[in-house]
Amino acid sequence: MASKSRSFGKAILTMTGTIIGAGIIALPATFSRVGFWPGTFLFFFLSAVVIVTHLLYVEVILASKKNLRLPGYVREGLGDIGFRAATMSYPLQIIGSNVAYIILGGEFFAILARHAGLTIPTSIWQLTFWLVGALTVLFGLRFVAAVEFYATGLLLLGLILAGVVVSPFVDVSLIQIGSPTGWLLPFGVFLFSLSGLSIISEVVELTGRKRSLSYGAVTLGTGIAALFSWGFGVIMYLAARGYPIRTSAELISVLPSMWTWLIPLLGFLAVATSYITTAKDLEAALRSDYKLSLHESTAIALLTPLALFILIARDFLSTIGFVGAVFIGMNCIMVSLLALKEFHKLRRRLPRLLGSILTVFMISVYLFGIFQKLFSRESL
After folding, report:
1. Hey, is 35 helix, strand or coil?
2. Are 280 and 133 in contact (CB under 8 A)?
3. At what angle do helices 36-64 and 211-240 cross, to 10 degrees?
């Protein structure tokens, strides 16, 4: 019983720690752009949509009886055309996310080092962040889960502490300020900061593929991550009192001087926990769904984000906004289509009808986000 409880706790914290990643650092900037009420409404609407999508994915995994990743389940349920789409969207979601994690993780690593008196170029710390994350991934899922468990616990405590530290500076009058015309702009950033599709297969395995435990871990993990992320984004936005907070340095400036180390530490923990679990998931997907060898899958999972980090422009906010709206949106659509197929297998008409309506609604939300991102002329 104690072992089952520990596994359930690890599953919740693995889910929470993976979701609270680079996206949380962007939330104060998004709230400062659209305001409290429009941002809060969109954030919690998408939170509900993401929780339902996660639960649909759990059902797809349990119905399959196989330990695959999304591309593998798509090949089983949607055929070769769906598999080709998943082959593009799923790896690109994780690779794009991990590029953002390397960018931000190294920045926070550098800031922490400067506090310790080490002045080394940020690019060196970004490479160091990648190397430490890669070595952690190489030790395997159990080691990753153990690191995630303790690091996530520290992360949640740190987020609470950050809220307490900046609370005296909060300007509640900003709650009344909003930008209704641009309230949909954070769609991709919010979806990026809430989605945990890449870790759900591991969560199901950690709970022993028990339906009730899997549902509970996914729901609680996503819900806890959403509440902490929203709280951090809002309180930092209100404490900034209208000053721009788009960069790490601007975010750190919100804190009193004696606490300026706290945001870099939180950012590093948030990004590190997400990086190691998503990289491990991509490795597992390449092995189980694409039948690559361990060495091939590990090399692709770890070296591809590094190569892109070196080659492409390093704009953190636009990177996660695009990855969230387009690639995560595409993956969530495929999860919804897989769930729709499962609902069609139900014998009772009412559950089949309600399930079909739900999945069509979910698909519509994600399609809207994709088109909004691709064709909108505005940006955060």
Report:
1. strand
2. no
3. 160
Read off the pLDDT of residues 290-319 as tens digits, 9 standing for 90 and up. Answer: 889 989 999 999 999 988 888 765 567 778
Nearest to 234 by CA among 226, 261, 48: 226
Report DSSP state, residue 258. G
Cα separation, 29 vs 151, in Å, equals 25
- Round to whole Å and give the CA distance between 127 and 143: 22
End-to-end CA separation in angstroms for the chain: 48
Q: Rounded to whole angstroms, how far apart are CA atoms 240 and 237?
A: 5
- Listed as own residue / partner, the contacts of 223-227 with beta carbons closer than 8 Å and 24 or more positions apart are 223/47, 223/51, 224/12, 224/16, 224/156, 225/15, 225/16, 225/19, 225/20, 225/194, 225/196, 226/19, 226/43, 226/44, 226/47, 226/50, 226/51, 226/194
Which residues make beta-bridge pairs with 178? Answer: 35
Give backbone dihedrals phi and psi of 35, rounded to 5 degrees, phi first.
95, 170
Q: Could you tell me how many residues make up the chain?
A: 380
Indicate the fold that domain 2-64+92-375 takes in CATH.
Answer: Amino acid/polyamine transporter I (1.20.1740)
Residues 6+ positions from 37 with CB-CB distance below 8 Å: 175, 178
φ and ψ of 178, to 5 deg: -155, 170
Residue 68 Rama label (left phi>0; alpha psi -120 to 50; beta): beta
**Where along the chain do its domains lie?**
2-64+92-375
pLDDT digits (tens, 9 = 90+) for 59-112: 999 998 888 899 999 999 999 999 999 998 999 899 988 988 898 888 888 888
Max Cα–Cα distance, the chain, nearest Å: 67
For residue 70, what are the CA distances in angstroms to 18, 208, 322, 366? 17, 19, 20, 17
Distance CA 270, CA 148 (A): 10
- Rounded Cα–Cα distance for residues 361 and 126 (Å): 40
Phi, psi of 375 (to 5 degrees): -115, -5
